[in-house]
Amino acid sequence: MSPTPLSLTYLVRPSKTLNSNAPAIFMFHGYGSNEEDLFSFAPELPEQFMVFSVRAPFSLEPFGYAWYAINFDAEYGKWSDDSQAIESRDKILTFIEEATETYQLDKTNITLLGFSQGTILSYSVALSYPEKVKNVIALSGYINQKILLEGFENKSLEHLSFYASHGQVDQVIPLEWAQKTPDFLKNLGIPFKYEEFPVGHGVSPQNFYSFRKWLEEQV
Protein backbone atom coordinates (compact mmCIF):
# COMPACT_ATOMS: atom_id res chain seq x y z
CA MET A 1 0.00 0.00 0.00
CA SER A 2 1.49 3.33 -1.09
CA PRO A 3 1.28 5.91 1.68
CA THR A 4 -0.68 9.10 1.06
CA PRO A 5 1.71 12.03 1.68
CA LEU A 6 1.18 13.52 5.15
CA SER A 7 3.20 15.87 7.36
CA LEU A 8 5.64 13.11 8.46
CA THR A 9 7.17 10.29 6.42
CA TYR A 10 5.79 6.84 7.23
CA LEU A 11 5.15 3.26 6.19
CA VAL A 12 1.70 1.69 6.44
CA ARG A 13 0.23 -1.81 6.66
CA PRO A 14 -3.51 -1.90 5.93
CA SER A 15 -6.00 -3.59 8.21
CA LYS A 16 -6.56 -7.11 6.92
CA THR A 17 -10.19 -7.19 8.06
CA LEU A 18 -11.59 -3.63 7.82
CA ASN A 19 -11.77 -1.14 4.95
CA SER A 20 -12.87 1.75 7.15
CA ASN A 21 -13.13 2.63 10.83
CA ALA A 22 -10.16 0.38 11.59
CA PRO A 23 -8.26 0.66 14.87
CA ALA A 24 -4.69 1.83 14.37
CA ILE A 25 -1.21 1.40 15.80
CA PHE A 26 1.28 4.26 15.38
CA MET A 27 4.91 3.20 15.88
CA PHE A 28 7.74 5.58 16.82
CA HIS A 29 11.37 4.48 16.53
CA GLY A 30 14.36 5.29 18.70
CA TYR A 31 17.20 7.81 18.35
CA GLY A 32 19.25 7.34 15.18
CA SER A 33 16.87 4.84 13.60
CA ASN A 34 14.08 5.19 11.01
CA GLU A 35 10.57 4.07 10.13
CA GLU A 36 11.72 0.69 8.79
CA ASP A 37 12.96 -0.48 12.21
CA LEU A 38 9.73 -1.11 14.13
CA PHE A 39 7.84 -1.84 10.90
CA SER A 40 9.40 -5.32 11.09
CA PHE A 41 6.80 -5.98 13.82
CA ALA A 42 3.90 -5.15 11.51
CA PRO A 43 3.29 -8.60 9.95
CA GLU A 44 2.92 -10.13 13.43
CA LEU A 45 0.57 -7.52 14.91
CA PRO A 46 -3.21 -8.16 15.19
CA GLU A 47 -4.71 -8.14 11.72
CA GLN A 48 -7.61 -5.78 12.43
CA PHE A 49 -5.21 -2.88 13.07
CA MET A 50 -3.93 -0.50 10.43
CA VAL A 51 -0.25 -0.06 11.31
CA PHE A 52 1.75 3.14 10.76
CA SER A 53 5.50 3.37 11.34
CA VAL A 54 6.55 7.01 11.47
CA ARG A 55 9.92 8.64 10.75
CA ALA A 56 11.14 11.23 13.25
CA PRO A 57 11.46 14.78 11.83
CA PHE A 58 15.11 15.59 12.68
CA SER A 59 17.92 14.17 10.52
CA LEU A 60 21.15 12.93 12.07
CA GLU A 61 24.53 12.77 10.37
CA PRO A 62 25.62 10.58 8.71
CA PHE A 63 22.28 8.75 8.75
CA GLY A 64 19.18 8.12 10.84
CA TYR A 65 16.59 10.33 12.48
CA ALA A 66 15.66 11.60 15.93
CA TRP A 67 12.62 13.00 17.69
CA TYR A 68 14.93 15.42 19.50
CA ALA A 69 18.62 16.09 19.91
CA ILE A 70 20.68 14.39 22.60
CA ASN A 71 23.70 16.51 23.42
CA PHE A 72 26.94 15.30 24.96
CA ASP A 73 28.66 18.08 26.88
CA ALA A 74 31.98 17.72 28.72
CA GLU A 75 30.80 20.00 31.54
CA TYR A 76 27.12 19.07 31.85
CA GLY A 77 27.15 15.51 30.54
CA LYS A 78 24.36 14.07 28.43
CA TRP A 79 21.16 16.12 28.11
CA SER A 80 18.06 16.12 25.95
CA ASP A 81 16.62 19.02 23.95
CA ASP A 82 13.20 19.23 25.59
CA SER A 83 12.01 22.06 23.34
CA GLN A 84 12.60 19.85 20.29
CA ALA A 85 10.84 16.99 22.09
CA ILE A 86 7.78 19.18 22.68
CA GLU A 87 7.88 20.19 19.01
CA SER A 88 7.91 16.50 18.03
CA ARG A 89 5.11 15.75 20.51
CA ASP A 90 2.86 18.18 18.69
CA LYS A 91 4.03 17.01 15.23
CA ILE A 92 2.97 13.48 16.23
CA LEU A 93 -0.43 14.75 17.36
CA THR A 94 -0.94 16.51 14.01
CA PHE A 95 0.14 13.39 12.11
CA ILE A 96 -2.32 11.18 14.05
CA GLU A 97 -5.13 13.62 13.27
CA GLU A 98 -4.18 13.69 9.57
CA ALA A 99 -3.95 9.89 9.34
CA THR A 100 -7.23 9.39 11.21
CA GLU A 101 -9.05 11.57 8.69
CA THR A 102 -7.20 10.38 5.57
CA TYR A 103 -7.58 6.67 6.31
CA GLN A 104 -10.98 6.89 8.08
CA LEU A 105 -9.61 5.31 11.25
CA ASP A 106 -11.51 4.54 14.44
CA LYS A 107 -10.45 7.60 16.42
CA THR A 108 -11.55 5.93 19.67
CA ASN A 109 -9.09 3.05 19.24
CA ILE A 110 -5.61 4.51 18.67
CA THR A 111 -2.53 2.71 20.05
CA LEU A 112 0.94 4.25 20.29
CA LEU A 113 3.93 1.88 20.23
CA GLY A 114 7.32 3.38 20.96
CA PHE A 115 10.88 2.24 21.50
CA SER A 116 13.39 4.28 23.53
CA GLN A 117 13.07 7.91 22.39
CA GLY A 118 9.87 6.92 20.61
CA THR A 119 8.51 5.65 23.93
CA ILE A 120 9.34 8.93 25.66
CA LEU A 121 7.33 10.73 22.96
CA SER A 122 4.49 8.19 23.15
CA TYR A 123 4.14 8.81 26.89
CA SER A 124 4.16 12.55 26.26
CA VAL A 125 1.50 12.45 23.52
CA ALA A 126 -0.83 10.11 25.41
CA LEU A 127 -0.63 11.95 28.74
CA SER A 128 -0.80 15.41 27.16
CA TYR A 129 -3.62 14.59 24.73
CA PRO A 130 -5.43 11.57 26.25
CA GLU A 131 -8.56 12.27 24.22
CA LYS A 132 -6.62 11.12 21.12
CA VAL A 133 -5.22 7.83 22.47
CA LYS A 134 -6.51 4.55 23.93
CA ASN A 135 -3.42 2.32 24.44
CA VAL A 136 0.32 2.83 24.78
CA ILE A 137 3.02 0.16 24.37
CA ALA A 138 6.13 1.70 25.93
CA LEU A 139 9.32 -0.26 25.24
CA SER A 140 12.68 0.68 26.80
CA GLY A 141 11.79 4.24 27.71
CA TYR A 142 10.64 6.45 30.59
CA ILE A 143 8.31 9.36 31.37
CA ASN A 144 9.96 12.76 30.93
CA GLN A 145 7.68 15.05 32.93
CA LYS A 146 9.32 18.15 31.41
CA ILE A 147 7.67 17.47 28.04
CA LEU A 148 4.13 16.85 29.31
CA LEU A 149 1.49 19.47 28.59
CA GLU A 150 0.95 21.75 31.57
CA GLY A 151 -2.15 20.70 33.50
CA PHE A 152 -2.28 17.23 31.91
CA GLU A 153 -3.11 15.66 35.28
CA ASN A 154 -6.45 17.51 35.29
CA LYS A 155 -7.59 15.78 32.09
CA SER A 156 -9.62 12.57 31.94
CA LEU A 157 -6.95 9.85 31.91
CA GLU A 158 -8.78 6.79 33.25
CA HIS A 159 -9.60 5.36 29.81
CA LEU A 160 -5.90 5.05 28.91
CA SER A 161 -4.09 1.71 29.23
CA PHE A 162 -0.32 1.29 29.27
CA TYR A 163 2.02 -1.64 28.70
CA ALA A 164 5.58 -0.76 29.75
CA SER A 165 8.69 -2.94 29.63
CA HIS A 166 12.42 -2.52 30.10
CA GLY A 167 15.61 -4.52 29.86
CA GLN A 168 17.18 -5.36 33.21
CA VAL A 169 20.68 -4.69 31.83
CA ASP A 170 19.83 -1.68 29.63
CA GLN A 171 23.00 0.39 29.21
CA VAL A 172 21.28 3.26 27.36
CA ILE A 173 18.31 4.17 29.56
CA PRO A 174 18.80 3.17 33.21
CA LEU A 175 16.37 0.59 34.55
CA GLU A 176 15.62 2.75 37.59
CA TRP A 177 14.19 5.46 35.31
CA ALA A 178 11.65 2.99 33.92
CA GLN A 179 10.90 1.63 37.39
CA LYS A 180 9.35 4.98 38.32
CA THR A 181 6.60 4.42 35.75
CA PRO A 182 4.26 2.16 37.79
CA ASP A 183 3.92 4.60 40.69
CA PHE A 184 3.49 7.54 38.31
CA LEU A 185 0.64 5.83 36.42
CA LYS A 186 -0.91 4.45 39.60
CA ASN A 187 -1.10 7.95 41.08
CA LEU A 188 -2.99 9.08 37.98
CA GLY A 189 -5.44 6.16 38.17
CA ILE A 190 -4.27 4.74 34.83
CA PRO A 191 -4.36 0.93 34.39
CA PHE A 192 -1.04 -0.55 33.30
CA LYS A 193 1.13 -3.63 33.01
CA TYR A 194 4.86 -3.32 33.73
CA GLU A 195 7.45 -6.00 32.94
CA GLU A 196 11.21 -6.41 32.93
CA PHE A 197 13.23 -8.79 30.76
CA PRO A 198 16.85 -10.06 31.07
CA VAL A 199 18.08 -8.09 28.05
CA GLY A 200 19.82 -4.82 27.24
CA HIS A 201 18.42 -1.95 25.18
CA GLY A 202 16.21 -4.01 22.90
CA VAL A 203 13.06 -6.10 22.55
CA SER A 204 13.31 -9.85 23.16
CA PRO A 205 10.89 -12.32 21.50
CA GLN A 206 9.28 -12.91 24.90
CA ASN A 207 8.76 -9.16 25.25
CA PHE A 208 7.12 -8.97 21.82
CA TYR A 209 4.75 -11.87 22.48
CA SER A 210 3.84 -10.40 25.87
CA PHE A 211 2.89 -6.96 24.57
CA ARG A 212 1.05 -8.47 21.60
CA LYS A 213 -1.03 -10.61 23.97
CA TRP A 214 -1.70 -7.54 26.14
CA LEU A 215 -2.85 -5.59 23.06
CA GLU A 216 -5.18 -8.38 21.99
CA GLU A 217 -6.78 -8.28 25.45
CA GLN A 218 -7.59 -4.55 25.27
CA VAL A 219 -11.25 -4.12 24.37
Our count of helices gives 6
Proportion in helices: 25-40%
Major sheet description: 7 strands, mixed
Mean pLDDT over all positions: 95
Unreliable runs: none
N-to-C SSE string, H for helix and E for strand: EEHEEEEEHEHEEHHEH
Number of strands: 11
Q: Could you give the order of strands across the largest sheet?
A: 1-3-2-8-9-10-11
What structural class is derived from the secondary structure elements?
alpha/beta
What is the 3D shape?
Answer: globular
The amount of beta strand, in percent, is 25-35%
Amino- and carboxy-terminal Cα gap: 27 Å
The Cα radius of gyration reads: 16 Å
What does this structure look like?
Helices cover 28% and strands 26% of the residues. It has 6 helices and 11 strands. Strand 8, helix 3 and strand 9 form a beta-alpha-beta unit. The longest helix is centred in the middle third of the chain and has 21 residues.
Task: Describe the protein's topology.
Elements: E1 10-13, E2 22-28, H1 35-39, E3 50-54, E4 58-59, E5 65-66, E6 70-73, E7 77-80, H2 82-102, E8 105-115, H3 117-128, E9 135-139, E10 161-167, H4 175-178, H5 181-187, E11 192-197, H6 205-217
Parallel strand pairs: 2-3, 2-8, 8-9, 9-10, 10-11
Antiparallel strand pairs: 1-3, 4-5, 6-7
Provide a quick synopsis of the model.
This protein is of the alpha/beta class. The protein has six helices and eleven strands. The strands form three sheets. It has a seven-stranded mixed beta sheet with strand order 1-3-2-8-9-10-11, with helices on both faces. It has a two-stranded antiparallel sheet with strand order 4-5.
